[in-house]
């Protein structure tokens, strides 16, 4: 039955000069092809991860109490600790301590003078 | 277009300086065959015009991706058919038509199209074609009206030759049955 159809008859039509007009029209409608733009990352976006990391670290330090004043050693404790470490430095926290320190120095000077005399003669 | 001319055209399409002029040549060469391919799928002239524009815009924006693995014409036909199918899917959605139902809503468009002047028999044939599933309809149009080779159809539709032959055979059978009962 399909063989009886006259395929040379074209029922579909187009407006006059359609293809010529279409070809010009489509060339005017083409989107421009721009070079791919270099992506500019704002400064705050670059700094943000580091800031966040620093804030997190500070947060952790606060949580474990590093900055807690109650946990900080007092000046006296600190001075004693320092004396213990060197064995030579004397901490002084009062007038009495200061006097002791001078006596100690005099003693040291005397010892060194005695050694000098001993080795020279 | 010869293979050599096609290769030269592709080369110029990939070169930014010659791209625009080469594309104008491509449009001039292929706008008419692609138009008829689309027209047989969407039927009305105005819809075909829209789909053809979309097709060439897509070709323009993706021409850098064409590496010549298939013939240029095959690639163009494939884009045109895909664009036509995308258009029909949108139309079905607008008309609340399932993909499994016949696209008879297109018949109304065809009858109201001032650029269709087919007689009663031709309108009946179009109606019979519209009752076919989408893929069968495309295969039937390519084979029956355009007398395209199965090998070329296979590349465009990315379907095996065997499946296309079977599809065409079923399409012809259904159309003849419809025409017999309608008479």
Automatic annotation (TrEMBL), chain B:
Q: Name one GO biological process term.
A: DNA-templated transcription initiation
Domain (RNA polymerase sigma factor 70 region 4 type) spans 123-175
Q: Cite a single GO MF annotation.
A: sigma factor activity
Keyword list (alphabetical) reads: DNA-binding, Sigma factor, Transcription, Transcription regulation
Q: Which residues form the RNA polymerase sigma-70 region domain?
A: 26-92
Presence of keyword Chaperone: no
* Family membership: Belongs to the sigma-70 factor family. ECF subfamily.
- The name on file for this protein is RNA polymerase sigma factor
